[in-house]
Amino acid sequence: MGEMKKTTDSCILYGVPRIHFGMEEDGRFQATPFPMCFRTVLNYMGQDFGYTQAMVYSGAAFRMRWGIENGGWDLAAIDIRNIYETWEKPFRLAFKAAGRDYNVPDITDESMKKEIYLQFIKSELDCGRPVIALGVVGPPEACIITGYRKNGETLLGWSLFQGDVPFGGEHDIDETGYFSQDKWFENIEGIMAIGEDIGKGASVKEVLQNAYTLMTKENVTVYDGMFSYHGGQAAYEAWAKTIENDSFFSGENFKQEYGNCQNDAEMMLGEGRGYAAVYLNNLAETTPYSADELRHCAALIESAAVCAWKMQDPRGGWQVTDENMARFRDAKVRKRIAELIRQAAIYEKDACAKLKGIIDKI
Fold first, then answer.
1. Domains of the chain
2. What span, in angstroms and rounded, lies between the C-alpha atoms of 190 and 92?
């Protein structure tokens, strides 16, 4: 842990590592906010916990969601709060896997929510523990709160979106390098803190069963049934059909956000399955009775991930530029992308069959 400086109206934790898109573990790109924040905070607090673990145990490595309304174009599909029926489950699973309590403020009176949040944040920081928040700067994705000034009216921390125009919204950059946000309460959707060591982790069978369920469940309701998504094989097919649908890509019907939705789906597949393959290969080193099956499964999962990265080539890369979006509108380009989506689905279907056999042996 780094240095803590505290005054009568401020507390700042120094030395919390910055998070940013593109950080690497096992030579792979990192882009999912919560696992990045969770790993970083645990490491800062002295617990060795990797990004691969956070991706796998939370279920983020195995998610694939494609919207049902508007042809599936949904910028919220990538949010890990849409993995399970209840939005907080990925967080609880990650905390459990790390053998930690999952601490959140008890909101008994909505009119006192800001005061309750503030008391919770200050209490954690005063004890030297960074807080994970959803929002504060930019979209409601995870960030790390590392300090406060003016008795908490200003929060400091790291966000993947700080300095990002336009996604970062209004905020300043503190002399520490941390973001500085006065309007934090208007842009926050939840906070959580890493609790005490409870000494309980997730079993291998639990992790693999959860992975299998996420990759095979095709009808997914989230937020206690408020919204629905395609999942599993159904998500791949719905995604491919949307890409093939000329009506979305003609004239004024085409929207730049379609490029962002495509990127998000590729990231769920490419980044997620890439880290899933790392986990399975690592598991093969310590689970000799299923080593060959695990490696075979990992190879299939890796092949699905490779399909995602290949989707970027026909449209000239992942950037949502006018040139790349013009290519994206081309029917031949979209046909190639749809072929890769369906190829990834085949790899994943075969991987799930192999994974089921592994689970049955444990």
1. 4-197 (3.90.70), 204-361 (no CATH)
2. 14
